[in-house]
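Hey, quick one: can you model this chain's 3D structure?
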Amino acid sequence: MNDSSCCAEKNAGSMTDEIQEFIQMLRDMAGTVADQLGSVWIYVQLAVLVLAALVALGFSSWLRKRVDLTSRIMGLPAPLRLVLRAVFTNLGLIIFVVLAATARAVMLVYTVPARSYLISVATSLATAWLVIHLIAGLVRNRLAVRIVAIAAWTVAALSILGVLGVTTEALDAVALTIGGLRLSLLLVIKVAVLMLATLWIATTTSNFLDTRIHQLPDLTPSVQVLISKLVRLTLITLAILIVLSSAGIDVSAIAIFSGAVGVGVGFGLQKIVSNFVSGIILLADKSIKPGDVVTVGDSFGWVTSMNTRYISVVQRDGREVLIPNEDLVTQRVVNWSYSKDDIRLELKFGVDIESDPHAVRRVALAAVATVPRVLPAPAPVCHFVEFSGKSLDFLLRFWIKDPVDGTSNVRSDILLAMWDAFKREGIKIPSPIQDLRLREPVRVVNESHRADGLSKS
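Sure thing. Here's the predicted structure for all 457 residues.
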């Protein structure tokens, strides 16, 4: 117990010393700046930098108005277009760096180096920012570009100013020990930046491989999606492990966090894990694949994409429904194009009770044969199913081979063909008019005559 207290006191004393050293460094820098403000050369350098910035801004704006970059780089290779676009975007910064470096070189000829130190620092910082932006201009993820660019420029600026070592020591001094893991502010920043960079690389590589996998004709769509998801998951896992190892974090030291994740899965994340596992099952057993026509509950449409948590189904009205993978495993799903495209449809109808059922069957089969989407084999059939008090009921069954084009529209075409045929043959549909039979005589009174008699009396 005493050894632990002594170690903690020693670490706290070391942390205090490093923070005090960092504060003293800031004070020395502030004193140096204050001394420089008393010299006329600091204002000369500021004037040179402001003039260089104004000239660079004005010339770059004038050049952008005169030059149509899109038309000039049309037809060039894609990588070269990206480089030229990045250069044209940072044209003002390039001109500023050139002017500032020229002013620095001229002042070194006629004055001592100390009188152009501010221009030297500004030129170095602008050059670092320019290089970072030119490299970042080749990346399309704007958020990742901004974060990485700011982090890289901050490190470059601290290195140029000569305070990088002291700053890192001060950040490393602010630490918290959890079990066998020491979490410092420097470690958190390093892990965050490295994690962002490696995850971006993993995602970009995964997207590239996903495009190549979907171009392989020998693989079915479900196998393509399964391989793509496994590749993405593997790359992201490797990226996380590489970052933790490079940051010096022992993976075994974060076992407490894995236990917390297990508890979270047991209480609050079971649905997410269930959907993820269900998605892997669906991709492995190939029961549903992109392009299938499915019915899940009230949703009917085409499967456009399969993700780790849900599938996307586009309905005939254009609405896109996201169905969790768990529902596809636990509920009843109708796959209209699972093994073949041919499906049988049924259509119930009734005719007037005075109609000849033999003629009705013959006319109905002839009418359904005129619809182009109905298959001739298997041949349509019409069954006389029931006598009722109001109609003769029939069941018409037929086959189509293109359910992806819809089923309601083919039923509508058949009903219209049957209506025309029934009208031509004199077959009537059930009438909504009902007969009323009276068992006893009923006396009918004319209300208008009754009212006239009462008024006369």
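One thing worth noting: The chain has a mean pLDDT of 75.
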